[in-house]
Amino acid sequence: MENKKEIYYYANHIYQFSYALPVYNKIGGVFVVKDLSRYLQFKRHFRNLAKFSENTIFNTPRVIISPRERLHELKGIIFFLANSIVPDKDYSGCKTIFHEHGTSDKRYGGKAHEEAKSKLKKYDFIFLSGPKNKKRLEEVGLLFPSEKLVKIGGLRFGPYFNRELSILKEQNRLKIKDFTRKNILYAPTWRFGKGTLPKYGLKFAREITHKYNLIIRPHFHDFKYCRKLKLLAKLHNLRHLYFSNNPNTIKYDTFNDFILADLMISDMSSVIYEFLILGKPMIIVKNEFTNFHKMPKRLDIMQNVDVYDENQDIIELIDSNLLEHKYKETYAAMAEECFYLNDDSVNRAVKFIERLRKEN
Question: Which regions of the chain carry the CATH code 3.40.50.11820?
Answer without folding.
Answer: 7-157+341-358
